[in-house]
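Next comes a concrete protein, fold included:
___
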Amino acid sequence: MLRFLTAGESHGKGLVGIIEGLPSNLKIDIDFINYELQRRQKGYGRGNRMKIEKDKISILSGVRGGITIGGPLTIFIENKDYENWIEKMDIHNDIKETITKPRPGHADFAGSIKYNQSDIRNILERSSARETAMRVAIGSISKLMLKEIGIDIYSYVTSIGIFEDKNNYDINHFKSADKSPVRVLNKSLEGNIIKEIDKIKDKGDTLGGSFKVISTGVPIGLGSHAQWDRKLDAKLAQAIMSLQAIKAVEIGDGINSSRNTGSNVHDEIFYNGRYFRKTNNAGGIEGGISNGEYIEIKAYMKPIPSLKKPLKSIDMKSKKEFLAHKERADICAVPAASIVAESIVAFTIAKEISIKFGGDSMQEIISNYNNYINTQK
């Protein structure tokens, strides 16, 4: 079973990831993984932290001679900003600073009560979206695995603030999202979005938005209708909701479908040597199972809760009203979140590939995959 764990704090020494269940003989392209990490650090509206960190991975185990060997793969990403935070984050030092004013919308408040912490930093460090750097590294390895059987993952931003792109695009357009500093495909929106981010920054506020993640080349048959926890759309929705600040997930044309009739919603089935649809309102999943069309997921991200002009809060020590704690943060992280979501989807689909075509080596998985595909002809 393919699974992973991450560890590390936002301003600690670094982030650690362990992937278990990777097949052997998967070629690991470190340049590709580091490139994906760079993609995550880009995007108009990011904070000053991105000027400090130059994320690159170090592989500590599980790879020899450039290929996986079947054991757990361990990754480390150094936090270069740690040297500026040693007094606050060193595991041996007597910590003098205590944060007691939680930010509305963040894990600060509930986490401090749940874990009985008098210092909110003990919560905010781990709940920070800095953790997503490791998830991109892990997802990038998943992408390398998926590419071996022809599956690719793309994303693009569909809205930031009040500016929304309602157009539909084909696969030839998806790859161009990285050319935009806000990762939109509709170039006419780009300037307005950048101006809006600048305006919100001057107000000391933040912006949310939405994005789509598209997976192409996914075969029929991932997931299952047989049990609630085996449904592919349920697994993908849970995975995307685990991304910091995501508050809603839509599969295919889910919201509009709820307002329409069945004859206008369901995707008719055709065959011309292979099964295909002329529409994809289902977003590539029916009954919890992939149907062979591209998988489309839309995620909605709330504004980041760290504000330069903070909201009203309570000092959890004195119980008196104060303004919330201020922490360095982005103004808008929707473009970066779309990159992280690619990796989250990649890992989820790679896990389903492992379940469906299970094997201990890439050669075995590819053989099982090809045999399955040939039965559909």
Notes: The chain has a mean pLDDT of 95. The longest helix spans residues 334-356.
